[in-house]
C-alpha cells in the first residue's frame, strides 16, 4: 500500500458522507469500498438515465478492482496523490488521453463525494505529448514565493515543503528531538509514509533552514510562554509546528496529521497575497524538479523524497517538452564542439 497508516477523517461537514457510512457500519473497519460506491451512485446519479448510471457503475467497480490488485486501500478518503499517479502512469498508461481524462473525471467525482479533493489539488494538465503532467512552480512563481514577506509559521512550512521536500503530514510529525543541529551536517529525521508506523529518513537542512528554524523557535517560545501564563498546567507538545488562537481565551497545540490543516492555514493566506495557486503537492514536486534540473542524481532525489524506488521518482518529476527541448540544445552544442 502506498497510503499512510489508515485513519478516519475528522468529524466536519466536509466529511459528513464519510461518517454517515462509518457510523452505519459501526466503525471504519467494517466499511467496504462497495458500500461507498453504492452510496455515491445513490447520492450523485439518482436522477441520471439508467444507461448512463450503469456505465459509471461499471467503471467504478473496475477502479475498485484495480486498486485492490495494485495493493492500494480502495476506501475513497484514503486515496492520495501517489495512488492517483500510479493509476495514470501505470494502470491506465496504454489508454488514450481522452479515456484517461474521462476516468479521472469519474474518479474525481467519487472521491469528492467523500470529501477527498486530491485530484483537484493535483492540478492535472494534459500536454500535447499525450502524457498526464502535474503542476510545478514556474521560475517566476518560485522567485515571488521566496521573496514575499512571510510569518514565522509560513516561513517554516514553505522551507520544509519547498526547501526540503516534506509532505504536509511529515511537517506535522516533526518533533523538536528530530532536529539535529550538527555544525558539520545539520539534518532532520522524519517519519514518512509506509506500512505500520511509516519509514524514517534523514534530510539535510535546506537553503536558509537554520535561519528559518531560529525565527520559528523564537515565535514558538512566545506561544508557549503565553499559554503557560494563561494555564500553568498546559503541557508543551513535542511537535515542532504549533497552531495558536488568541481570540477570547488563548489556545494552542500541534497540527493534526489529518485534513491538511497546516496547508489550508499558512498556504491559503500566502496564495491570497501572491495571486497564484499552489498546494503542498506543488511545493514538494517543485523541490524534486529543481533538484533534477540542478543535475542531482535521480537516486539521491528518490531518497530525499522518501520514495521506495526511482520509478516513482521519475513519474513524480516527469519529463516534459521543455526538458526534451533542452536536451536537444545540449546535443546541438555537443555536435558543434566535436564535429568538423
Strand count: 5
Order of helices and strands: HHHHHHHHHEEEHEEHHHHHH
Helicity range = 40-55%
Q: Unreliable runs, pLDDT <50, ≥5 residues?
A: 1-6
Shape: globular
Q: Provide mean pLDDT, rounded.
A: 85
Terminal CA distance reads 55 Å
Number of helices: 16
Query: How would a crystallographer describe the biggest sheet?
Result: 3 strands, antiparallel
Radius of gyration: 22 Å
Strand order of the largest sheet: 1-2-3
| Strand proportion | 5-15%
Q: What structural category characterises the helix and strand content? A: mainly alpha
Explained architecture:
By secondary structure, the chain is mainly α. The chain is 54% helix and 6% strand. It has 16 helices and five strands. It has helices at residues 16-24, 33-44, 50-69, 81-91, 97-113, 118-122, 139-147, 152-162, 168-173, 209-230, 261-264, 266-274, 280-293, 298-305, 310-317, 321-338; strands at residues 179-180, 187-191, 200-204, 242-245, 251-254. It has a three-stranded antiparallel β-sheet, with no helix packed on it. The longest helix is centred in the middle third of the chain and has 22 residues, at 209-230. The chain is globular. It starts with 15 loop residues before the first helix and ends with a helix. The model is unreliable at 1-6 (pLDDT under 50).
Question: How would you describe this structure in keywords?
Answer:
340 residues; mainly alpha; three-stranded antiparallel β-sheet; 16 helices; 54% helix; globular; disordered N terminus
